[in-house]
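Troubleshooting log. The previous structure file for this entry was overwritten by mistake, so regenerating from the original sequence record. Sequence copied from the archived sheet and checked twice against the printout by T.R.
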Amino acid sequence: MKKILFVSIFMVAMATQAQENADFKTETVEFLKLTGAGKAFESAIDQIGYNVPEANKEVYTKEAMGTLDALYAKMADLYMSEFTQSEIKELIVFYHTDLGKKLAEKQLSLTQKGMSFGQTWGMEVSQIAQKYTE
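Regenerated output below.
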C-alpha cells in the first residue's frame, strides 16, 4: 500500500512539474514574441526567400513560417536556462509598457546598426593588429 501511495505522490509531483515547465516555456515564448523577435524572423524569411519566384512565394512562406515554432522552442530553452520564471514574468510586464513596446519596435534596427558599427570597429582593430605583426 505504501508503494502505491509513494508512486501516486511521485506521479502527481511529476505532472505538476511538467505543467509548471510548460507554463514557463509558454511565458518565455510570449516574451520572445513581445521583444520583436517574431518580426525579425518574418523579415528574415522574406529576405531569404527574396529570389523565390512569385508562383512559389506563398507555399515557401507557409513552409518557412512553419519552422518558427521549433525555433521559438529552442530559444525559449536558452532563455529559460538564463532567467527564472519570475524574471520572465517581469520582462513580459516590461514589454507591455510603452517603453518596452518602443524598445521592441526599435530593437532590430538598433541591433543591425550596432553590428555594422562592430564590424567597422573590428576592421579598424584588425588593421592595428596587422601593423604590429609585421
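Residues 2-96 form one domain. Archived copy saved in two places this time.
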